[in-house]
Design a protein that fits this description.
By secondary structure, the chain is mostly helical. β1 and β2 form a beta hairpin. The chain is flat.
C-alpha cells in the first residue's frame, strides 16, 4: 500500500464521521425546536383545545350538572333545539341585542372620536371623561342605570314627567322596554372602546391628505367619506368583528340587568339560556350543546364577514 492510499484511507472515515455528525445535528434541530415549543403547545392545548373538545364531547351526553351519572344520547340535544321555541327566541334576542348595540356603539364612538381628534381647550380632560364608563365595573354600571330608569324614583322618569313629555312614569325595566334599557346601558358602557380604538387610528392619518382635500374644495363630509373612511377601514373591520362577537356572547350585563325570572325571558340571549339550562335546569349536556351551537354560529358569521370584506382587507 502506498503512502497516498494510506492517507486517503485515513481521511475517508473522517469525512464519513463529519457527515454523520452533520446528519445528526440536522435530525436534532427539529427535535429541539419541538421541545422548545412543547410548553406553548401544552398551554394552548390545555387552555383552548381541551375545553372546546370536552364541551363538544359533553354535548353528546345527557348529564346532570353536578352528579357524575351520564348517558350517551348522540345528537339528540341538537335535534331538540332545532324545534325549541325558547332556543329560537334566544337567538332572536341575541341578534337584536348584538346588532343594535354594535351599530349604536359604532355611530356614537366614531362621532366622539372625530370630535376628540379636533384641537380645542379641555380636549385631554374630555378624553379622560369619555373613558369613564369603560373603566367602571359592570355591576356598578348596571346598578347606576337601574336606578336612573326606575319607574318610582328614577331620574329619567322624573325629568320626563317634569318636562311634560310623559304624563305617567314609564316602566323602563318592564317587559316592553327592558331590551331598550339593556341596549342603552350596554352602549353607554362599551362605546368608549370604539372611541379609543378609532381615535388612535385617526391620529396617524397624515394631515397632508386633509389639506389636499381642502385645496380641491372638499367640505367636511366629503373629507370624511373620501379621506377618513378609507384610511380607517382596517380598524373599523376589527372593531365591528370584535364588538359583534363580544356583544353576542355578553353575559354579565344581561344577567345583572334582568336577573332570572320575571322580565328576563324578554332579553334571554343564548349565553343566558345556556347558563339556565346548565345551572337552573341542571342539564349540563344541553348547556354544552348550546355552547357548541353558539360557537358554530359565531364561526359561520365570522367566515361570512371575512368573505364579504376580504377584498378590502387585502387591498388595505
Amino acid at each position: 500500500m502506498s503512502a497516498g492510499t494510506g492517507l486517503r484511507s485515513l481521511r475517508a472515515p473522517s469525512r464519513a464521521h463529519r457527515f454523520a455528525r452533520a446528519s445528526s445535528r440536522r435530525r436534532r434541530g427539529p427535535v429541539i425546536g419541538w421541545l422548545l415549543l412543547a410548553p406553548s403547545l401544552l398551554l394552548i392545548g390545555g387552555l383552548v383545545l381541551y375545553p372546546i373538545l370536552y364541551n363538544c364531547w359533553l354535548s353528546l351526553f345527557d348529564k346532570h350538572a353536578f352528579l357524575p351519572a351520564q348517558a350517551f344520547v348522540g345528537l339528540q340535544h341538537y335535534r331538540y333545539f332545532a324545534t325549541d321555541e325558547e332556543f329560537w327566541s334566544s337567538v332572536h334576542y341575541g341578534v337584536v341585542y348584538a346588532g343594535a348595540t354594535m351599530v349604536l356603539q359604532l355611530g356614537l364612538g366614531i362621532m366622539a372620536a372625530l370630535l376628540l381628534n379636533e384641537a380645542f381647550r379641555g380636549r385631554n380632560l374630555l378624553r379622560g371623561v369619555v373613558l369613564f364608563p369603560y373603566m367602571i365595573p359592570t355591576i356598578v354600571a348596571v346598578i347606576l342605570w337601574k336606578w336612573l330608569l326606575n319607574d318610582s324614583y328614577g331620574l329619567v322618569n322624573h325629568l320626563l314627567v317634569a318636562s311634560g313629555l310623559v304624563r305617567t312614569p314609564v316602566a323602563w325595566l318592564g317587559k316592553d322596554y327592558i331590551m331598550w334599557s339593556l341596549i342603552l346601558t350596554s352602549v353607554w358602557q362599551f362605546f368608549p372602546f370604539v372611541v379609543v380604538t378609532y381615535l388612535a387610528r385617526l391620529q396617524t392619518i397624515p394631515p397632508e391628505l386633509y389639506e389636499a382635500a381642502k385645496v380641491d374644495g372638499a367640505g367636511a363630509w366629503r373629507r370624511f367619506v373620501h379621506v377618513t373612511l378609507p384610511q380607517t377601514r382596517n380598524v373599523l373591520f376589527v372593531i365591528v368583528l370584535l364588538r359583534s362577537i363580544w356583544m353576542f356572547t355578553k353575559f354579565d350585563t344581561v344577567w345583572l340587568m334582568a336577573g332570572e325570572g320575571g322580565v328576563s325571558r324578554y332579553v334571554r340571549t343564548l349565553p343566558i339560556y345556556a347558563y339556565a339550562r346548565t345551572f337552573t335546569y341542571l342539564q349540563a349536556g344541553m348547556g354544552a350543546a348550546l355552547a357548541v351551537i353558539m360557537f358554530a354560529l359565531l364561526l359561520g358569521a365570522t367566515a361570512v364577514y371575512f368573505r364579504l370584506f376580504r377584498d378590502e382587507e387585502v387591498v388595505a
